[in-house]
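Thread: DUF2155 domain-containing protein, structure

OP (GT): Posting the sequence first so everyone is looking at the same thing. Length is 158 residues per the record. Can we get the structure tokens written out before standup tomorrow? I want them in the notebook alongside the other entries.
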Amino acid sequence: MKVLLKLLVLPLVALSLATGCNDKGKQKPEANRPRPARAPSVVVVPDQVKGKWKAVQIRVADKNAHLKKVYTLNIGSDFKLPGSDLTLKVETFLPHFVMEGTTLTSQSNDLVNPAAQLVIRENGKEIYKGWLFSLYPTAHAYQHPQYGFTLVDYMPAS
């Protein structure tokens, strides 16, 4: 009787163990579902800010030469970084940067949270588009192998 019981129970135990092993590598069905696409951010420059700022100053740190230099970049204009293949462009300056859902805007024209949207191109190819924050210089900082960029000052339009 014990032998008969072993012959019946052992295959059932082996089958349940084998089935359990097959589930270990499987992901839950939720993990395979595509995630919904995130809505792109929209930059809105309010009328109270439009045309009120002409330039920003960005400190560029050359990590290889251990040098830092401040450059004035006119908003909306290309700036060729001397001695490099980089072109910088400040697309937008928001003196009181806020994020409202997917909208990036300025709550006022006061320098509460200054931010500049910077585009960096290398040999004409865009390698970075993001924001520099003067109060939070390391937030979302672009990691270039040779250069570091920091927003340091802002120039109002005359």
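GT: Both are above now. Quick notes for whoever picks this up: DSSP finds two helices and ten strands in the chain. Residues 2-32 form one domain.
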